[in-house]
Amino acid sequence: MTNANRSGLRKLLFGEGRLSQRFRNINILLFLLAFCIMAAVMVTAFNVIVSGISSEYAGSYATSSADALSARVSKEISLLAAAARSDHIIAWLKDEENEDQRTLALKDLSDTMSELYSNNLYVIVGESLNEFKVEDDYQITRGSYLFTLEPGDPEDSWYFETIMSDHDYTLTVAIDDVLSRKRVFINYIVVSEGVPVGAISTGLEFSHIAGELFYHFYLGTTRGLIIDENGGVLVDSHLLENEDFLHHEYDSAFDDLLPQPILIDAIRRHLDSIDGYFGATSEPVVVRLTNDPYHFATIAPIRNTSWTVVIIYDSSSSLEMPLFIPIAVAMLVVLVVFAFVTNIVSYRLIFLPFDKLRQSLARLKEDNEESIYGADRNDELGELSNSIKDWFIKANYDALTGIRNRRFMETNLQHVMRLLSRSAGRLCVFMVDVDFFKNYNDTYGHEKGDVCLKSVAQAISASVTRSCDFAARYGGEEFAVVLPNTDQAGACAIAEKLLENVRSLKLPHKASEAASFVTVSVGVTTGMVTYEQSWEDYLNRADQALYISKQTGRNQYTYIDME
Q1: Which of 30, 78, 197, 296 has the fewest CB atoms within 10 Å, i.e. the most exposed one?
Q2: Beta strands in 219-344 (DSSP E)
Q3: Does residue 150 have an active-site annotation?
């Protein structure tokens, strides 16, 4: 490749131009390269792989399906376990009528529900046997329980079996009365001081679980079952489209569906060996069959349950996986390399510049004079940086006076109060009003009035010098000053300085009753910040002090302590 060609390729990939175009060009080239390599590997693999299947592969075939369901169930169990240990939930179940505890418990329940696979969560209070349902909007149904469980009702027996169980949870299969769907219910006991006080339950829809479990099966040559510890069939891959299976009770035993005596005997031996829920060390059992249409079967325990996956298939369907394994490995290697190279390129083109932009915006929070990275670029990042710069100015600065605006003041005052409340710090707030400003506008005109406000705003802003202090236009001719960690003595000194700065402007004001030039009235308050206070409290108190200044002659400040 000549130097000119190298230069052209380098410019195409890393030169000037739209960022999205450069990223697209690089990805297209890398994808074509990866595609060619994968195609070559696949052709080679199909030429060298021979027919056949091993018992080791047969075991992994079913185990992968069992692990898929186990992972789903285990995640839901862990979420319910965390909720069952919540102090707020335990406290509410012990005192059902306590509204405060109910509110705190609902917050924890809503956090749990937001992470659940299914959007349904039920809570049973042990003492009253009232059952609640948490809705999608994270509210308890209608503010009251759905119904009360009856100890003698077979439909409610799951709860009493759960609290009597030797395990922390039980698994049941039933029709959800609210949603009219067949579900796997995970029921977790809530215990306080060794005594059950209720239970939390969630349901996984069988159609979703079965779809995930058997999605890769070619159903013409492969059949998958999930059976419980009693041999009842919970899921049959041949019934995934059957509405009776999804919406109604389905009662069938495995030996009614499987004609092979060898497999039936193997499943029975497996069921006889079940003692509680399967652990991580449970191993699958591979069974060779002699009768058509199936020639192979695997019995795989589902961890954290007492259920078992049984998969039966013929040789042709088994052959698909060994063919796929080397192809999958080759594709994985190529894709890893592809991802690694793409990551390096995308980091240089996109993520590094955007990280610099992020860092400059983080520094901007601490230093308002900090420049925004990328404003001088001619690509999308440059457009974004300049848009952020414009937005920042419009969102935080008053268009007329050039100082901070009310929105900035309210947002940052809340932030300042949160910090000061943690350290028991003091906060000082000024409210400043231009004396007889309406008369000024009437006498000199609104254009002169705008010039006056700009001058007064700059004089007020010049009165505060610390980086944590700021002045803002509150509205009209009113301004506010925020001074964190400032006591009464410091506040009064700055108030005197502010008054003098405005007076020194010597802006004529013949319509003023306070002086022959423009003056301001100031209300000052300070106090130790607590969690119970709000920023409005400080503004209101400063406004009260401002009112006194205006009522007693203006052109002065009045101090009122927050306490």
Answers
A1: 78
A2: 222-227, 233-236, 285-288, 296-301, 308-313
A3: no
- Predicted confidence (pLDDT) per residue in 44-73, tens digit: 665 555 334 445 555 566 667 677 777 878
Neighbours of 533 (CB within 10 A): 16
- Is the pLDDT higher at 244 or at 562? 562
**Nearest-angstrom CA–CA distance, 149 and 158:** 10
Structure tokens at 81: 């376990």
- Residue whose C-alpha is closest to residue 29's, from 12, 41, 43, 16: 12
Q: How buried is residue 403: exposed, middle or buried, by Cβ count under 10 Å (0-12/13-18/19+)?
A: buried
Span 271-327, pLDDT tens digits: 888 888 887 777 778 787 776 667 778 888 888 888 888 887 765 544 455 555 676
Task: Write the DSSP symbol of residue 454.
Answer: H
Listing DSSP states for 21-90 in one string gives: HHHHHHHHHHHHHHHHHHHHHHHHHHHH--S---HHHHHHHHHHHHHHHHHHHHHHHHHHHHHHT-HHHH
Phi-psi category of 181—alpha, beta or left, where left has phi over 0 and alpha has psi -120 to 50? beta
The domains found in the chain, sorted by start residue, are 3-52+320-360 (no CATH), 69-207 (3.30.450.20), 217-318 (3.30.450), 397-559 (3.30.70.270)
Q: What does residue 470 show for φ and ψ, rounded to 5 degrees?
A: -160, 155
Cα angle, residue 407 at apex, residues 387 and 425 outer, rounded to 5°:
120
Judge whether 410 and 417 are in contact, CB under 8 Å: no
Please state the φ and ψ torsions of residue 338, each to the nearest 5 degrees.
-60, -45
CB 277 within 8 A of CB 265: no
In the set 241, 477, 478, 536, the catalytic residue is 477
The confidence score (pLDDT) of residue 318 equals 45
Peptide bond into 261 cis (omega under 30): no
Residue 443 has phi, psi (to 5 degrees) of: -85, -45
Whether the predicted pLDDT of 142 surpasses 50: no
Tell me the C-alpha to C-alpha distance, in Å, between residue 325 and each of 224, 317, 320: 21, 14, 9
Distance, in Å, from the CA atom of 244 to the CA atom of 222, rounded to the nearest integer, reads 22
Compute the residue count for the chain. 563
Greatest extent of the chain over all pairs of C-alpha atoms, in Å: 112
Gap between the Cα atoms of 187 and 511, Å rounded:
79
The token pair that represents 376 in the structure block: 């001088």
Distance CA 263, CA 297 (A): 7
Lowest-confidence pick of 71-75, 84-88, 349-353 = 349-353
Radius of gyration over alpha carbons of the chain, in Å? 36
